[in-house]
Every structure is written in C-alpha cells, then in structure tokens.
Amino acid sequence: MQNPAATLLALLVASIGAAAPLHADTVVCWGRNAEGQCSSPRNPGTVAGLAGGHYHTTLLRGDGSIICFGQNTHGQCVVPASLPIVQAVSAGQYHNLALTSAGEVRCWGWNLFGQSAVPPNLGICVAIAAGGNHSLALLADGTVRGWGRNDHFEATPPSGLMGVQGISAGYHHSAAVRSSGAVVLWGDNSFGQCLPPIALGPVQRLVSKGFHNVTLRGDGTVACWGQNDFGQCSPPSGLRNVVDIAAGHWHSAALTNAGAIVSWGSNEEGQLNAPPMLGPPRALGAGLYHCFVVLGPADEDGDGVPYADDNCPTFFNPDQADIDMDGIGNACDCDADLFADNLINGADLGIALSQWGMGTGAVADINRDGIVNGADLSILLSSWGACP
Fold this sequence. Notes:
- By secondary structure, the protein is mainly β.
- The protein is built from 3 helices and 23 strands.
- It has a 3-stranded antiparallel sheet with strand order 1-21-20, with no helix packed on it. A 3-stranded antiparallel sheet has the order 2-3-4, with no helix packed on it.
- It starts with 7 loop residues before the first helix and ends with a strand.
C-alpha cells in the first residue's frame, strides 16, 4: 500500500470559491403575524439591514430609507418624515433606533422610560442597539452610552469600558464586544445572562434578546447562555459553519454558509418552522414570536442551478460534486475538517495518516465508504485551506 504522504504534492489541489455579492430584494417571514409583522411589502427593493421588535419588523433599504410594518400601538412603525439617510437600524420592544450616515442617532416609538429620547451631545456614533425599554449607542471613540429604563442598570455601561466594537441589548441587560473579541455584560442577571461561559473565547458577533445571548465565534460555531426555559440556549449538537445569528425572546436561530436555517427554542407561534427558500438567505432576524430572512436572487452564484436544487447555493459549482453524498456540495462542505478548527491543514492530514486503513466509524473516513484510504485523502487535499 502506497504511503499517502508520498503523494501529497501530486494530489494537492486548492479549492477556491467566490462568494456572490449581497443583493437582496425578497423578505421571507414566518411565525406570528397577528399584528402584520410578517407582512412585508412585495417589492421592498434592496435590503441592507433588518431588525425585529416585539410585534413589528423594521427594514433598511439600500438607499438609506426605512420600511416598518406590524404593530403600531406606540407609533413604532411611523417612520419620521424628516429622517436622513440611514446606515443601520435596531428595534426594541416598542421603539426603533436609526443610525444616520452622519453618525447621528434618531429614535421613535414608545418613550415611557425615555428610551426614544436621544441624550444631548451624544457625539458621533458607529453602532446602535435597542433593548426592551432602553437604548445603547457605540461612540466613535469605542465607548458606550445608554439611556431609557435603568431599573437594573442596563443603561449604565461599566465604568472604564473602552475598546468596544459591537453592542447588543436584551430586555433588561446589555452587552458589548471588545476589539479583542471579549464580551462584557451588565444589567439584570436573574437568568445568568450576564455571566458568559468561561470557555467562550473570542466572538465576532453577539445578539441579546429577552433574557439570553447568542454569540457567533470566529470558527463558525455558536454559544448561548442565559434563560433556557424553552431550550433557546441549547443549539443543536454539531452546528457549525454559521455566518449569521438571530434571537427572539424564547427562540434562537442561525444561518449556515450552505444557506440552511437552523433554529431552536420555543415554537409556540411556528417561529421555528422556516419555509422552503427560493433564493439564498443572506441575512437573518427575529422578533418576539417571528423570524425573517432576506433572500438573494434565485441563482445567486450563477452556476445555472436554481437555489432550491443547488447543493452549494452561494458558490459557483455547476457540476454539483458531492463526493461524500451528504447533500452538501464539495464547494460548501467541510467534512475534511477532522481537527474541527475550521481549517483543513496539516493537523487534519495527521489524523488521516494515523487512521490509514481503519474501517467504519473512523473520523478520517470522509466519504463514509468503510475504509480510510486514498479517496479520503483526495477529498482532504482538494479542500485544503479555510473552510468556506
């Protein structure tokens, strides 16, 4: 039997795929729609951002204008006529925040606790987050300001908090992600929502909603903590290759690089029942009892295979090659990541060589044919590099 290491250079083939540009003009929503929060306009145009409140949905168009639909009992869907061009939106329980292209914050909707009253001299802002009844802004200098309801000090960032690159807000708690990827939380901790897991590690995105948090790590895995009465903090085992996350009050959701929508937690209003997608989901959002996605064109990768039939809808793969026959095309697959670090490199090759000739059950039996051999090595080498 030939040693596979001797054929390494001959078999090494780089797997390169170009992600399609973001261009989305279809919104699909499921779950509760009693207040019209899932009744998106038929042609919203290019959608650049999205946010879910308790019973309303807010969309940011590519031209900087806003569409809001759903419950309007507190004026949360009455977008100010004088609103300038907007670059980001966030939705709280019954209020909205908008970040203008000039770095100014605008608010509308319920203001019982002052959550819609922007503090004077706020300064230039780069990010916003609307909580249950409080609001946060990330300033250009990396500090955070809060206003609105403050019973649990959710609107009072910790003293000395600096170097922040992202913010989020739950019902009575707030969160920040530092430039290092470290997470800082403050406010109500009745469900442990302000105590991140010890082994959390650096995160690239954090979403707080209700009384829990969902984070996306740099390796494409998800971590959750806080209230878990409905399993909203228990993501499915093996969930990986995640590119976007969302959270309602009692449910959570993730979007994978293969276009799959995975959700967990309460399904009281059908918010976990994602319908079939006719285009690639490019962004994910959630409200109290609903979920929604923005879809790209039906054949966004331009490979001639419609999204619904494409085994890798975001990468050009007209041959639809799927060597391990798991329903995920080779261009999107990461089955060769034996070391589970989101990279296919020497660590994975070492595992394959150490299991050479082993049978069913071996992790290096990538194509699941009952033996670790040259076929598995070929898959590994052709996928060399970062997972898609």
